[in-house]
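Reviewer 2 asked us to include a model.

Predict the structure of this chain.
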Amino acid sequence: MSTDTDPEDRPTVAACQTAVTDLDPAANLATLRERVAALPDGVDAALFPEQFLTGFVPDDRMAEAAVRTDGSELDAVRECAAEHDVAVLVGYVGVADGDLHNTVAYVRPDGGTTTYRKRHLWAGERKVLTPGEERVTVETPLGTTGLATCYDLNFVADSAAYTEERIDALFVVGAWPAAHSENWRLLVRARALDGVRWAVAAGRTGRREVADAPTATYGGRSMVARPNGSVRASLADAERDLVVSVDPDEMAYHRKRVGIYRD
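Predicted model (structure tokens):
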């Protein structure tokens, strides 16, 4: 497929696949600074995994590790975004009005911050977290972009609602179990195809090994899926950055071929 967009004009995204130090926001912030600083020039948006700043354990310790969107940890993310002129999407357990939420923040280089709270909680999350209520879109270098977290991918009604809004991309953060990595890959591809949109997914890798908490192994498998559901680029489980330039003409091409907005 040939396109007319100059490669230098194409937006570039990075899925920063990394392990997480559970219950240690300071350590995870240090990792974020290092990874953003090491990205190549020209990256417009960098995605970090679900609950990246705080990690997660299904007990009362989350209240101690949780951070506020208007607190010092997110201020540090805003400073990093401004310093490197890159938007940063980062997950964390956030506290607001006494409730804990699985939160993701899209932080623009100018400091503007949009948050989304995971609507569909998984397993142990239900013991300590409160689900969000609203779907959220944000303007990114890829256009109007919906935000989703991990298990949200399973809920087709949410994807259909985003399709009604004709979003251009879906940004996904995840901490998907390694044993079910193929489910993650399939769902990211499906959510790209059923809205004929780009899907950029950043997954946690490594293990959770915290005293008195269940051990977990995460699959990584960060990827960028094309609007026709095929894989543009992907990672296995190494701690790496997946950097991809996205051709906007490609979405228009696939929307003509798939035709869901026409039909």
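The radius of gyration is 17 Å. Helices lie at 25-38, 61-65, 72-84, 125-128, 156-164, 181-193, 248-258. We have added this to the supplementary material.
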